[in-house]
């Protein structure tokens, strides 16, 4: 046996061990409940030990809150329902699923998959799904709800393992945070936080939302190429042949009625997109911010879930009417109801996941961990490439415990942006390194808001799939993306090539 085969075999055995251990854990809902209980206990221990951190912006001493005190128990008692209802993915998922139910029930999804399978080159399917995942961030986090199950469906239809398509879509959607071909809604948020942090050193600095644009485009190309390689050469061979009970979609040529329905559904989608554009592009657009006239914090983005709902509901309705799969309003409601039947397990899972996430947030354990971790990295005095790599690894580690990217950057930017600037690096360097670390571990951390939904989707193909299945399947993406991304940003550092449209990697003056 060759050395490369032995290494591959060892790596597969390692992933198999991860899967076995992970799947021997309790049901994900039980696991989240136990983790919530553990947070309560850890908060008591940490508070007793006096674990604190100094907030880098306010200078306030952040203390761990003991959730086992009378105040803590009262907070838990009065917030269980609120935690569940306010959990960010819950509303988005349920509203979008109502619209998806019409598209799926009318047959639009099925005919779209058939058309894609019939028309697209088979060798480009994996790359196309990853590209779609990267672009999906333009529609907020809808890619988690829509594209991941669609990727599995497409692979299943062409005779490949559905979980390989699932993995390709998941890697594209999650890595889209640190790589993209276009500027998304998160870029102005991060740039604003970077600006505030940079002003600590130089009040005149303004960080442009496109500060990482060149790096993001190069990273997006890397994600497509490397993601395709990992999917087809590592993940898919390990998965083998799908032997589950779910039957694949039969691929037949589209009938004339189906083609007509598809054309009119496309016109319907374009009409919705046109109306949405009309509501935000003009300066007096109805869905712009009525006070500032801006788009970023406008009603449009605050209610983006409505736009996503309409983009699926209207074309699905049109297709159903033309093909005869929808004859009256009862059919529409029936399709909506059917789409919600499979969400029962997800809703139960979210109930316990929400308690874990909000217990963790209320205890301040995540904030204290992030601040102390940042202070430690600063204290060891790294510079150059070791500093960048260390910050990438720290960001990846903290992402395992804190799900919100903007919340993490709000804490980390005031520490690291000034630190990088004082070492003569542009604020965009710190921001780019943060985005790498925050992207690579998204696919393996249960703290990611949509992880519960990901597990639920996977169980459609095999009810035995659990947290261990997902982590072992996605771990190769984490490891290889991390290594390649470190190489890319190191090359950027050595060449001094601009990260984006806001200056070079070094600050040449002012520091």
From TrEMBL:
The chain crosses the membrane at residues 29-51, 90-113, 166-190, 210-230, 262-281, 301-322, 343-360, 380-402, 409-427, 439-458, 470-494. InterPro entries: AbgT (IPR004697). It comes from Acetobacteroides hydrogenigenes. One of its GO terms (molecular function) is secondary active p-aminobenzoyl-glutamate transmembrane transporter activity. This is Aminobenzoyl-glutamate transport protein. One of its GO terms (biological process) is p-aminobenzoyl-glutamate transmembrane transport. The keyword Magnesium does not apply. The keyword ATP-binding does not apply. Keywords: Membrane, Transmembrane, Transmembrane helix. Signal peptide: none annotated.
């Amino acid at each position: 046996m060759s050395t490369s085969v032995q290494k591959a075999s060892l790596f597969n055995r390692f992933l198999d061990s991860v899967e076995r251990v992970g799947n021997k854990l309790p049901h994900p809902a039980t696991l989240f409940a136990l983790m919530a209980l553990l947070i309560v206990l850890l908060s008591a221990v940490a508070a007793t030990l006096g674990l604190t951190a100094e907030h880098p912006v306010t200078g306030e001493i952040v203390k761990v809150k003991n959730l086992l005190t009378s105040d803590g128990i009262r907070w838990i008692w009065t917030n269980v329902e609120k935690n569940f209802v306010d959990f960010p993915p819950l509303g988005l998922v349920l509203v979008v699923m109502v619209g998806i139910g019409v598209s799926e029930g009318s047959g639009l999804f099925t005919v779209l998959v058939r058309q894609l399978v019939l028309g697209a080159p088979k060798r480009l399917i994996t790359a196309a799904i990853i590209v779609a995942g990267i672009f999906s961030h333009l529609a907020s986090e809808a890619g988690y709800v829509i594209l991941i199950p669609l990727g599995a469906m497409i692979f299943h239809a062409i005779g490949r393992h559905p979980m390989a398509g699932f993995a390709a879509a998941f890697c594209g959607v999650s890595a889209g945070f640190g790589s993209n071909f276009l500027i998304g809604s998160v870029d102005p948020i991060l740039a604003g936080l970077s600006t505030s942090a940079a002003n600590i050193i130089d009040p005149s600095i303004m960080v442009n939302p496109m500060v990482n644009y060149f790096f993001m485009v190069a990273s997006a190309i890397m994600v497509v190429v490397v993601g395709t390689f990992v999917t087809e050469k590592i993940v898919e061979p390990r998965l083998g042949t799908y032997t589950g009970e779910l039957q694949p979609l039969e691929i037949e040529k589209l009938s004339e009625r189906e083609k007509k329905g598809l054309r009119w559904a496309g016109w319907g989608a374009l009409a919705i997109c046109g109306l949405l554009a009309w509501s935000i592009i003009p300066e007096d657009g109805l869905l712009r911010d009525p006070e500032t006239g801006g788009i970023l914090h406008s009603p449009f983005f605050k209610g983006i879930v409505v736009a996503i709902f309409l983009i699926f509901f209207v074309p699905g309705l049109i297709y159903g009417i033309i093909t005869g799969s929808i004859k009256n309003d009862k059919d529409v409601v029936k399709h909506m109801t059917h789409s919600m039947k499979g969400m029962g397990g997800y809703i139960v899972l979210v109930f316990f996941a929400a308690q874990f996430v909000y217990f963790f947030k209320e205890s301040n354990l995540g904030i204290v961990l992030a601040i102390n971790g940042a202070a430690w990295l600063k204290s060891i005095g790294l510079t150059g490439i070791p500093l960048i790599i260390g910050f990438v690894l720290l960001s990846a580690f903290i992402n395992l415990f804190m799900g919100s990217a903007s919340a993490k950057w709000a804490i980390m930017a005031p520490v690291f942006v000034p630190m990088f600037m004082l070492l003569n690096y542009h604020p965009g360097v710190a921001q780019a390194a943060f985005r790498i670390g925050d992207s690579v571990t998204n696919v393996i951390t249960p703290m990611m808001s949509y992880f519960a939904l990901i597990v639920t989707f996977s169980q459609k193909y095999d009810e035995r799939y659990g947290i261990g299945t997902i982590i072992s399947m996605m771990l190769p993406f984490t490891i290889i993306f991390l290594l390649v991304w470190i190489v890319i940003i190191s090359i950027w550092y050595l060449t001094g090539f601009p990260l984006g449209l806001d200056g070079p990697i070094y600050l040449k003056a002012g520091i």
